[in-house]
Amino acid sequence: MGLKNIMIVGVGGQGTLLASRILGNAVINAGFDVKVSEVHGMSQRGGSVVTYVKYGEEVHSPIIDKGSADIILAFEELEAYRALPYLKKGGRMIVNTQQINPMPVIIGAAEYPDNICEKLQRVCDITTVDAAALAKEAGSIKAVNVVLIGVMAASTDIPYEEWIETIRSTVPPKFVELNIRAFDLGYNLNK
User: Fold this and answer.
1) Using CA atoms, how far apart are residues 30 and 138, in angstroms rounded to an integer?
2) What ranges do the domains of the chain cover?
3) Residues 6+ away with beta carbon under 8 Å from 33
4) Contact present, 8 and 21 (Cβ < 8 Å)
5) What's the rounded Cα separation, in Å, for the pair 105 and 165?
6) What CA–CA distance (Å, rounded) separates 92 from 124?
7) HSE on the CB side for 156, CA within 13 Å?
8) 63 secondary structure, DSSP code
9) What's the mean pLDDT when you consider all of the chain?
10) pLDDT tens by residue, 162-179
11) Which fold has domain 4-187?
């Protein structure tokens, strides 16, 4: 198996770091070498957060160059649009349809772009997900991150049981069942 390059992009407070921890642990548990690198903008203030996850037989660097991401897992539409240059030809983008206004929009210095997902559909393979609705169905809006991991996991070569065991060992015990419900809703979304 060659290297797999996955970018997780979102806004501070959306749970991207837990999502990258679940992904990294699942990959390790499946027997792959993995490297993870997190880039934080002003994440505590709603700024961009980007995580690079590379896995395969042997990984030397976690950094993902432009045009080389197999999957971009986007927790927010504008962050998906910003990450588009990193997606490789034939790559896949999974986008939560949530929109979070960045500071320039909040203060009136800019407008949030219209129809981002429609624009992305014209140039790449994209799966859009109302992850907030699925997270609410699972029991908490905070489970958006695990819903999205579930959507992505369904297209990986890592067995379902490995993902569930990873969730059990990664999230705090009192949130395990909630996160498994959220994962399952994402995992089974397109089945």
Assistant:
1) 26
2) 4-187
3) 55, 56, 57, 58, 59
4) no
5) 41
6) 7
7) 27
8) -
9) 92
10) 999 999 999 999 999 999
11) Pyruvate-ferredoxin Oxidoreductase; domain 3 (3.40.920)
Q: How many helices (H) and strands (E) does the chain have?
A: 8, 6
Q: What is the CA radius of gyration of the chain?
A: 16
- 139: burial class by Cβ within 10 Å (0-12, 13-18, 19+)? middle
**Distance between CA atoms of 122 and 108, rounded to whole angstroms?**
29
Distances (CA, A) of 109 to 81, 85, 101, 103, 112: 19, 25, 12, 9, 10
pLDDT at 12: 79
In the chain, the amino acid numbered 190 is: N
Torsion angle, CA of 96/48/19/181, rounded to 10 degrees? -40
Tokens 């990450």 identify what position?
A: 83
Question: pLDDT of 3-45, one tens digit each?
Answer: 999 999 998 778 888 999 999 999 999 999 999 987 765 545 5
Average pLDDT score over residue span 79-105? 94
- Look-up: residue for tokens 């690079």? 52
Beta strands per DSSP E along 41-170: 48-56, 69-74, 87-96, 125-129
Grouping H, G, I as helix, E, B as strand and the rest as coil, residue 107 is: coil
- Write out pLDDT tens, residues 104-134: 898 999 999 999 999 999 999 999 999 999 9
